[in-house]
Write a structure and sequence with these properties.
The complex is a heterodimer.
Chain A (H helix, E strand, L loop, with lengths): L1 H6 L1 H18 L1 H4 L31 H37 L1 H15 L3 H12 L3 H27 L3 H8 L4 H37 L11 H8 L9 H28 L1 H6 L1
Chain B lengths: L1 H28 L4 H6 L5 H10 L6 H13 L13 H36 L4 H15 L2 H15 L15 H35 L2 H8 L4 H38 L5 H10 L3 H29 L7
Classes of the chains: A mainly alpha, B mainly alpha.
Chain lengths: 276, 314
Amino acid sequence: MRYFIRRNPRVIIGGVLVVILLGLALFAPLIAPYDPIAQDIARNLEPPGPDHWLGTDDLGRDVLSRVIWGSRISLSVGVISVSIGFLVGVSVGLAAGYLGGLVDLIAMRAIDALLAFPALLLAISITAALGPQIQNAMIAIGVVAIPAYTRLTRGQVLSIREREFITAARTIGVPTLRLVLRHIFPNVSNALIVQATLATAFAILAEAALSFLGLGTQVPTPSWGLDINYSQRYLMNLKWWMSAGPGIAIFTAVFAFNFLGDALRDALDPRLRRSA
Amino acid sequence: MGRYILRRLVLMIPVAFLVTVIVFTLIRLAPGDPVLAYAGEEKDPASLEALRHEYGLDQPYYAQYVSWIGHALQGDLGRSIRTRQRVAEAIVERLPATLMLGSAALLISISVALVVGTVSALNRNKPIDLIATAAALGTVSLPNFFLGLLLILVFAALLRVLPPGGYTPLANDPGDALRRLILPAITLASASLAVNLRQVRSSMLDVLAQEYLRTARAKGLGEPAVVLRHALKNALIPVVTLIGLQVGAIIEGAIITESIFFWPGVGKLAVDSIAGRDYPVVQAIVLVSALSFMFATLVVDVIYAWLDPRISYG
């Protein structure tokens, strides 16, 4: 472990950033200095100061508290949508790769069809069809994430299924489901961990974009994307702090997951480290 | 080559069919009765039923799909619920603005990526390379709607050197059109800049390690000639694929960029239609975008195969 940490300091830096974000979301009620939806009109549009570190919005709500509470939405969308993409994508990829034939053909054409849509556009379209709610945004982002897991898993399974230990397991009569879950899946997991980390970064960005367009979180729930959209109208009056807090929060969260994903890819795949 | 293109076109058919099924299903998933939306104030059950019949909504789903795809193939994508305008007409009307923004963004993204990516590769692991790589990672993590607002804040609200939004057709007033184009084009370019930069850098690094460059240097060519005439030319081959992949990034980015800068293009039309629950318009834009993206990918693959003879046509 100590050797791994010494060899991969970037994983530790990325990991620490992600843990801080998770802690912020988990302990938001304890950390946030104010109620994120409590209005104090007498102190509206205050610039950052000792009482309100990131200022207040036009309704007198504390921007810092909204940013801290907003992390709950972003990270839960990240975790849930990535889980949807992971479960469906990996299952389809395992089935297509191991069974091959017609299952593979149908599954991969369906995945090609999903890949034909620009990712965010598909997410927008699904959320618009299901109705503008955060749960629907999670489903939409999850669906968009499916193809990456399927292709990754299928590719790995195709290369592993012809290896000798799989032939040996098959020869001694290990049932197919057990073979796939106990012998093939663990060999794919490294690549999937990297993909899940990078997909979380995309999910956070996509949720922010959907909420910015009014398709995700709805008012008055604190959400980074929604709050940036709301702050737009005060930008020309130079009330920059309303959008700065949530904007920097999105940047930090996406950067943390991208950084961790990149670092994990290098750490878990030594071939990449050599070619970088 | 002809057979390769034909094969790719044939392979596209089942995927395009599935794309249309997905888009059609999304229309049917949309909440609310479309007839009520079309009818507006009209609530008479007999008129509603007549409308339902007129639009074929009393038919089974597969019959509706066949009718819908038949009309779509003839360019009839239905009518907007909000404006009653033909959807195809609405898209075509707004296309010039989107194409102008998209081309400008593409130009900025590719040229910056080419210059910075090449300089980065030539100075591998030196401070300039590290700064460029860090900046690229930063751009990936910055949502383009936030960057757009930052640009408006700095250049329109604080410095007052550029307008915060709006569109002027190039033919009407070229000067004003270009001034209004700068901020949205930079915002849209940022969406793809990081990916382009990384691709140019890694492609250039690959080429710089080739032996024919050592030969070029050995025969006495100067460094600029080695880089520009020998290395860059070959490093550009993978970069060609980027231009096609940008179509997706530009369609996605245009939706948000156009709405921030009040740019009256197809992306703004999509956002307005989402807000107005105008599903026929939303779905038509999704269909056209997906098919354009597929077509762009095909064109890129063909150009790539033509440029690099090592690629099999099989």
